Predict the structure of Phosphoribosylformylglycinamidine cyclo-ligase.
Amino acid sequence: MSAGKGAGASYAAAGVDIEAGERAVDLMREWVEKARRPEVVGGIGGFAGLFDASALKTYRRPLLATSTDGVGTKVAIAQALDKHDTIGFDLVGMVVDDLVVCGAEPLFMTDYIACGRVVPERIASIVKGIAEACVAAGTALVGGEVAEHPGLLNPDEYDVAGATTGVVEADEMLGSSRVEVGDVAVAMASTGLHSNGFSLVRKVFADAGWAYERHVDDFGRTLGEELLEPTRVYAKDCLALARGPFGVHAMAHVTGGGLANNLARVLPGQIDVELDRSTWTPPRVATLVGELGGVDPLELERTLNMGVGMIALVPEEHAAGAVEFLGERGVDSWIAGRAIAGAGEVRLASDYAESR
């Protein structure tokens, strides 16, 4: 039976553009090069990223730490606004700052970008953000993957994910075993919503008929610009705090599940932390989501970070010094509560302050 006239099936005809993928690699090369550490061996283009592990010989008992995550539906806003150079900070912040809470230094990271169609300039813009965030975190971007999925994703759709590996000295690892009654909770301000809760956020603003291009006086910019504010990368600041003379016992990265749920993950079963809401003011975007959507306050706190992106538990005598130290590094922080005898829970007391 004849196959008929005309061109046969091909990868390009199926929607995969190999040449576009190669151009994307060429465009991103300079940004990946900026996110190097001395231990990186070779460059991009190989089948695996290489990292010289001989530096681990200086550790007495090195523990490798690893973390993986994505950005969630925040990518839909980047796609809607055709702005792709900040989503990398969200990705790096999600994976690297999950890792540093145990005291681990992030060594290297890889990323994965799945898209409906490879647009080289768009991919390069995404990787530019990832690389710049890796520099901010002190970690190397040793490789990644761009996968074209025509038919599964629309041409202008994409998703991003990443993984990072770090190392911590075993006897310097932070966590629940170090937490003591009397420890003080030092809260570190978020730069907005960071990368969690966007399924709720997008629905609330869509139902209210608010376009991303709408200028919001409370923000001093458009809704879209506010929602795309990049996640703060705390890695270098938190590691510096942990290595300083502040006796840090534990840290919690506030992501999905909100402040209380994430802080509870680093508490021993016999200790609670009581946080005083009156010590800070949530970002206006968070309270606006609650108002427009009629969201129950407890549900809002379980979904959004409410202005706290990271929290550290330190001995009371070092709390003021820790706040001063973070402030000198440009991280707004404050004493938000303390550890008390309990059952491994976080209690939120008082009402939020109107200004701080």
